[in-house]
């Protein structure tokens, strides 16, 4: 799970509270593909005592073994 970011849903909106130093440090430590990292926003099973309704984690897809084929 990615820390340094808190997520609350209220009145149909999602509020993100971000601790810049902590969040950026974690993102920079992640392996990236061409500078991109995929994050997943998931609802929590139960609300955190501080009202957080969602958590964020890194997409962890395994390679399907398929290769990209150029059409050029």
Per DSSP E runs of 2 or more residues, the count of β-strands stands at: 4
Structural class: alpha+beta
Major sheet: order of its strands? 1-2
Mean pLDDT: 82
For this entry, give a set of tags.
1 helix, 72 residues, two-stranded antiparallel ribbon, two-stranded antiparallel sheet, alpha+beta
What this model shows, in words?
This protein has 72 residues and is of the alpha+beta class. Helices cover 14% and strands 31% of the residues. It has one helix spanning 20-29; strands spanning 5-10, 13-18, 39-43, 54-58. The strands form two sheets. A two-stranded antiparallel sheet has the order 1-2. A two-stranded antiparallel ribbon has the order 3-4. The longest helix is centred in the middle third of the chain and has 10 residues, at 20-29. The protein is globular.
Outline the secondary-structure elements.
Elements: E1 5-10, E2 13-18, H1 20-29, E3 39-43, E4 54-58
Antiparallel strand pairs: 1-2, 3-4
Brief account:
The chain is of the alpha+beta class. The chain contains one helix and four strands, in the order ββαββ. The longest helix is centred in the middle third of the chain and has 10 residues, at 20-29.
